[in-house]
Amino acid sequence: MILFPLMKCYKNSVLKYLFCTHFALLSILFASAQTEAPQPPPPDVDTTRAHEAIGNNSIMEFVAEMAVYKGGDAALYAFISKNIIYPFDEMENEIEGVVYVQFVVEKDGTTSAHKILRGVNGGPGLGKEAIRVAKLIQFEKPGMQNNAPVRTLFTLPIRFALD
Description:
Elements: H1 3-9, H2 13-35, H3 47-56, E1 59-60, H4 72-83, H5 88-92, E2 97-105, E3 111-118, H6 124-136, E4 143-145, E5 148-160
Parallel strand pairs: 1-5
Antiparallel strand pairs: 2-3, 2-5, 4-5
């Protein structure tokens, strides 16, 4: 063994004792680490909760297929920019920022339960306008889980910027 020649270098018995105890502790730790069985990876999707959500009308945050607006994300943002009316007070005070709106996409593609997750300081009108426009959105395809439509939580950032 390689360690025994190293021990010959140590003339003091205290050093030999410390070396041996550290070596023994490391050997025990290494051996115990090797004997532990590896844990199986967690499942990708909790199917039990997915089946419950389909049956009892729960709102799901993570689904296999998110709700889709007709024409995709680019069309959704085009719809928003076409329908947004910048509030006068915020425009006058040059208030800009991003409002995060959260809502539920229902099984038929309509939206409900609109709320502001984060607004813009000094611009309450921006949040109100973001909610107004979010209520106009109609999704072509609702969120899907196990090939069935489900109520899906959707978060949408809406940027207000003056050019």
